[in-house]
Design a protein that fits this description.
Shape: globular
Number of strands: 4
Distance between the termini: 20 Å
CATH topology: Rossmann fold
Strand content: 5-15%
Helix content: 25-40%
Low-confidence stretches: none
Radius of gyration: 14 Å
Number of domains: 1
CATH superfamily: NAD(P)-binding Rossmann-like Domain
CATH class: Alpha Beta
């Protein structure tokens, strides 16, 4: 779980760091289970802990890439009807992707080191 949710995004960003130019954006897909306040949830503790770690990676990368004017953020898509979310999830894939697309295309470049859901900042 950590390989996919933490080390993968970290290593990919580090590897391509030299290609990231001013105005670049890194968007990490997190989860509300990655919030510190969610750590008491009995639902998939390892998953939640890995997403909390990803949020910490987001903060560190945002700080490290700030001088290059690269925005780095985590986002929560919500409970989406995917193979993972299942058919009972309330959100269609398009709705789950809205915030990621917004972060990639329209969000202010100065928005960095944040946790975003539905195009709004939420607490880590």
């Amino acid at each position: 779980m950590f390989d996919t949710n933490v080390f993968g995004p970290l290593f990919v960003t580090q590897y391509f760091q030299t290609l990231l130019k001013s105005g670049g954006r890194v968007i990490n897909i997190s989860s509300s289970l990655g919030k510190i306040s969610s750590q008491y949830s009995a639902y998939s503790p390892a998953y939640g802990i890995s997403k909390t770690a990803l949020n910490t990676v987001t903060l560190r990368l945002a700080h490290a890439l700030k001088e290059k004017a690269v925005a780095v953020n985590s986002m929560c898509p919500g409970w989406v009807r995917t193979d993972m979310g299942g058919k009972n999830a309330p959100l269609p894939v398009e709705k789950g992707a809205e915030t990621a697309v917004w972060l990639a295309t329209e969000a202010p470049q100065e928005l960095t080191g944040k946790f975003i859901k539905d195009k709004n900042e939420i607490e880590f």
